[in-house]
UniProtKB/TrEMBL annotation:
<dbReference type="InterPro" id="IPR011991">
    <property type="entry name" value="ArsR-like_HTH"/>
</dbReference>
<feature type="region of interest" description="Disordered">
    <location>
        <begin position="178"/>
        <end position="205"/>
    </location>
</feature>
<dbReference type="InterPro" id="IPR036388">
    <property type="entry name" value="WH-like_DNA-bd_sf"/>
</dbReference>
<feature type="domain" description="HTH arsR-type">
    <location>
        <begin position="9"/>
        <end position="89"/>
    </location>
</feature>
<dbReference type="Pfam" id="PF12840">
    <property type="entry name" value="HTH_20"/>
</dbReference>
<dbReference type="InterPro" id="IPR001845">
    <property type="entry name" value="HTH_ArsR_DNA-bd_dom"/>
</dbReference>
<feature type="compositionally biased region" description="Low complexity">
    <location>
        <begin position="186"/>
        <end position="195"/>
    </location>
</feature>
<dbReference type="GO" id="GO:0003700">
    <property type="term" value="F:DNA-binding transcription factor activity"/>
</dbReference>
<protein>
    <submittedName>
        <fullName>Helix-turn-helix domain-containing protein</fullName>
    </submittedName>
</protein>
<dbReference type="InterPro" id="IPR036390">
    <property type="entry name" value="WH_DNA-bd_sf"/>
</dbReference>
């Protein structure tokens, strides 16, 4: 029998569907809204993916209204969200996580490629950046760090689109790093400068 994790992965882990779910998150959207938010995706493609997400339970129709003789539907994420739950993650194996992480990274690459294709890019003015750092934390320190980070992010997730607000993509990855070899007796090396660059809104069809 197909698990909820397999169903979720099969439905959601597609570049266009990831963008649709991201656009609907925390809001009510019609297909016209989605077409405006994803101008590079043909409208017929949006309709097809929205229908698949609704059929799979990853989008809810919360309103239907007549517009010029046709029925316009309003979509939101379901109450449980459109993400894997703790039980799904606990039951997933290494192959599952490898597949999901590949989709996650592919989505980021597509987002960044779309940002780079803009007529004008200014990483500093646009607030774009990416970097890797290694944090040495005990379990207790890590728990404290995670709680502090959640405290910074959580209140802002309730922000709705509005004048002066720019949609900004924040992606996080946390994993154990391989211990660095002991270089205490070696000459000190200069710290590497963090690279800059990042995403903002994209994906191929």
């Amino acid at each position: 029998m197909t698990s909820s994790a397999d169903r979720w992965a099969g439905l959601a882990l597609h570049p266009v569907r990831i963008r649709i779910l991201r656009s609907v998150a925390g809001a009510r959207r019609t297909t016209r809204d989605l077409a405006a938010a994803l101008p590079d995706v043909p409208q017929a493609t949006i309709y097809r993916h929205v229908a698949a997400l609704v059929a799979g339970g990853l989008l809810d129709v919360v309103e239907e209204r007549k517009v010029r003789g046709t029925v316009e539907r309003v979509y939101t994420l379901p109450a449980h969200g459109a993400a894997l739950g703790p039980a799904d993650l606990a039951d997933a194996n290494a192959e599952d996580h490898g597949r999901w992480f590949t989709a996650f990274v592919s989505s980021l690459l597509a987002e960044f490629s779309r940002y780079l294709s803009r007529d004008r890019i200014d990483l500093v003015a646009d607030g774009v950046g990416y970097q890797q750092v290694v944090l040495h934390l005990s379990d207790e320190e890590f728990a404290e760090f995670a709680a502090e980070l959640a405290g910074v992010i959580a209140p802002r997730l309730a922000n709705r689109p509005g004048p002066g607000r720019v949609a900004r993509l924040l992606a996080t990855v946390l994993m154990p790093a391989e211990p660095a070899s002991d270089t205490s007796s070696a000459a000190p090396q200069p710290a590497a400068e963090p690279a800059t660059g990042s995403p903002d809104d994209a994906d191929p069809h």
